[in-house]
Amino acid sequence: MNIFDYLNINGHVTIHKLLGDGTEELIYDDHNVIVSGMGVGLASFFGVSGSTSILDYQIDRFQIGVSGSEAREISSTNSLSGPLSSSFEYTGEDGELFPLSANQIKGTFDGNISWYAAIPAHNVTKIGDSSVRYTITIDKDSCNNLRAATTYLNEVGLFMKNPLNTSPIPSPILVAYKYFSPIRKTSDFALVLRWTLNF
Amino acid sequence: MIVDKAGEVIVDILTMSPSLAKIPSASAILDTSNYTFQAISYGKDALGFNYHAHAQYNPTLSAIVVKSYEATSVSSYHSSAIASALYFYNLLPSYPDPLNTRLEPESCLTFYSGLGSFSGLDIGHCANHAILSQYSSNYITLGCFPPSGGVKYIVVNPSHDDSNFNQSNLIYSGTLSGNYNKYGLMDSSGFLTFAPLNGSQGNQNTALLRFTSGVLINLSPNFSSTGYVDIAWHLSGNDAASLLLYGGIYQLGLWCLDIRAMLKEGHKPPFNFNPLNNIRKYRLFAKKTFSRDLLYLNDVASFSGMKYLLESSALLQYLVYQWTIRFL
């Protein structure tokens, strides 16, 4: 048995549509998949083989994508199928997301630049002794300018910052993944994802 | 078994505020060493803390004393023998529970009620009373590790009376000196510290059997694909023999620091290990419970299993334990 079996590490995601008048509509509510990257990150931490700062083991960013599938909801998934691939896709002209670029660990090191959006520290909340919640707000102006008018958001992943301590460009690793029903994001509403990980 | 407290350690890692990095006096809180594995402990059943060598005290002898319930001609002692002699005592530790915060949830207080009663520490596992000055006269009963300078032990037959030692009851005797105390690796609460090394250094030191700086993280070359974190440490023959006299090893504990508890007490990192005045507080991460003594040694004909440990300079110099935590 590994640490996931003992601790029953799991997660849960809700997605709310936040309308202009302030009303919040729940549009998705389901478990998520903790992927093997979480084990890689924790093994690196407790094996004292990576970074010496715990900040590199924190989940400080996410990717959202357009070509996910239920088939990717397995522990061996190490990347999104079709993550947004530019700063502009995340923020457009006026979006409030904070885009980040970095390499990525996808089973092996991937030296290509990938794009992420930051999860501000104040949106990381400890709820109880062994649960943490990440609140991701995709404001009304963000993630509207996708590569084609017919593309829909349908996958999201959480990333640990840089557990293997690559330098000078960090290499985040996917730790949790979720496929969801396609959402056509427009400037009429914001999306609020509340993602809870239980250890 | 990984216990629930391990989840709390991980959540602490994930939620510690990054803004601490900007505060010079607090930035050290973000160092990984405050959250990684930092100690190993040895445990046994709760009742065991009042049997075996814990049940004997004779200040005149100034020796660890155990009664052997085995055939006297073999000069032997092992913990199962006492269980077969005392029908109400089954040696078994508590069943492992994810909610455990220490190895043995029941009281592990050694209370000696004869000849000047006294009691020791109740940590939930085997403590190291020998290094505390307040126990200098009775650590031989409280246990569980010998001082570096050595302590006499004697194995006696069941006719032995603490208040009146009779040489005719003596089966076997000798001296034990502990490596853990020689190298200052264990505090009074029985926490065996980790060497302050990174993973690759630990691997090199394990290969060379360099355990004098503490427990080692022994990462294998293919660690990144297996996700196995191997932890290796050394138990010298004399330390093993001492644990055997006090009831054996039925539990092992793997501990991280409890940084919140230490901050609450006003301590600031780095939390350096000091065996004589250890400010470190620990949080249980994992435990392993055994139904048989890890130090169990059978006698063969006239050759004593006990002597195999006790005459370690000639026979058993050390045991190397390895504990693997799987993250994938």
Task: Explain this structure.
- The complex is a heterodimer of chains A (199) and B (328).
- Chain A has one domain.
- Chain A has three helices and eleven strands; from the N terminus they run αβββαβαβββββββ.
- Chain A has helices at 3-7, 36-46, 87-91; strands spanning 10-19, 24-31, 33-34, 59-65, 99-106, 108-118, 124-126, 131-138, 153-160, 173-183, 189-198.
- In chain A, strands 3-10-9-4-6-5 form a six-stranded antiparallel sheet. A five-stranded antiparallel sheet of chain A has the order 2-1-11-8-7, with no helix packed on it.
- In chain A, strand 5 and strand 6 form a beta hairpin.
- With 328 residues, chain B is of the alpha+beta class.
- Chain B has one domain.
- Chain B has nine helices and twelve strands.
- Chain B has a four-stranded antiparallel sheet.
- In chain B, strand 3 and strand 4 form a beta hairpin.
- Chain B starts with a helix and ends with a strand.
- The relative contact order of chain B is 0.20.
- The model of chain B has no long low-confidence stretch (mean pLDDT 88).
- At the A-B interface, helix 1, helix 2 and strand 7 of A face helix 1 and helix 5 of B.
Tell me the layout of helices and strands.
The complex is a heterodimer of chains A (199) and B (328).
Chain A: H1 3-7, E1 10-19, E2 24-31, E3 33-34, H2 36-46, E4 59-65, H3 87-91, E5 99-106, E6 108-118, E7 124-126, E8 131-138, E9 153-160, E10 173-183, E11 189-198
Antiparallel strand pairs in A: 1-2, 1-11, 3-10, 4-6, 4-9, 5-6, 7-8, 8-11, 9-10
Chain B: H1 4-15, E1 37-43, E2 63-67, H2 79-85, E3 111-112, E4 118-119, H3 139-142, E5 151-156, E6 170-176, H4 179-182, E7 192-193, H5 199-207, E8 216-217, H6 223-226, E9 228-236, H7 237-245, E10 251-257, H8 259-264, E11 282-289, H9 305-310, E12 318-326
Parallel strand pairs in B: 2-5
Antiparallel strand pairs in B: 1-7, 1-10, 3-4, 5-6, 8-9, 9-12, 10-11
